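Predict the assembly for these two chains.
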Amino acid sequence: MSEEIRKIIQEHGRLALDASTLSAGADLYQAGMNSHASVNVMLALEDHFDVEFPNRMLTRSVFESISSIEAALTELRSEAAVAKDV
Amino acid sequence: MPEFRAGGPAQVEYLQELVDAGLLVRTGVHGVYARGGSFERVRLHFDALVTRTAAPESPEPLLFPPLLPREQLERSGYLGSFPHLAGTVFAFEGDEQAAAEQLELASQHEDWSGFQTMSDVVLMPAACYPLYPAIAARGPLPEGGVTLDTGDSYVFRREPSDDPARLQIFHMREIVRIGDRDTVVEWREEWRERAVTLLESLGLTIDLDIASDPFFGRAGRLLASAQRGQELKWELVSPIAENPTAIASSNYHQDHFGHTFTLRTSEDEPAHTGCMAFGEERVTLALFNTHGLDIQGWPAAVRRQMEL
């Protein structure tokens, strides 16, 4: 999943550097992603992974690194899986 | 109709006091008032004080009318961030028959919007918006960037309220810095001190708050969180009718406008931009609220500072 996230960040994050050089924990805002670009990343992630981030996840800390985005997506997918089971 | 933002009892009462004193005159629309008595005199003297305060950095005056080309609003991203606050100018373009039908509906106060066509202008959303494409059109910035002064520009926000500090149309005075990242960040820090000193010299109680803009919708939640987390906006807050109210603020837009309007530094990088904004009616309201509705009774030091 992290490679898909990285690709979306490369495309929409408007980073000052190549996203392939980022570590999973690197701060994307420090790497040059501005807040408008973070919205584009958020929308592209929703589209690609077919999820909708709930309000509690629409925060800077969720979108600040590849690993924090991956954690949020994993949580959303497990919630969706649970919802399907019941 | 937009959401009506009801003022608290103290704000509604303060509005009535201002009306009774002739400082504001009601028009029948919430948040749209005429300025009477000494209100405008105080506002203009504050405006002149901002001019004197900014004078050492010799900002270039670039004054626009309170209309923005619609194309610029569409490019700016404003309709993504603040669709609920924008005001768009529509106008009649029909024939005589249509004019007669429009008049008939209008005279009954019924809906005549079907006879109106979107024009190529919108109401000015913030004083600095027209500066960015105008400066971009000059080509790359000179070394060291530029500092600009919007003058006391009228701006529009569609948020009707009976809180006198929440006007639909008011004067925003902005000093704007355009340059590379370090230049803009450093400039904002200098202005933070300067603006606090300026407002405290008028006898106002000032608190500095890290703030966020009233962004719209789900994307807006993320924008507001990112804005706060990166401390891109701070406000200078002073009580007006017991309500802590932002009377001045500074935004750092990072390279948002640099990208949006192809604004390049002398090194051919996307420019960073930041602004220092004063809400002139709010400053005026804070002054009357703090020192009383009669200027003659204001502290001598404040009157001297404002040359009143």
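Residues 56 and 62 of chain A are 9 Å apart (CA to CA). The first helix of chain A runs from residue 2 to 12.
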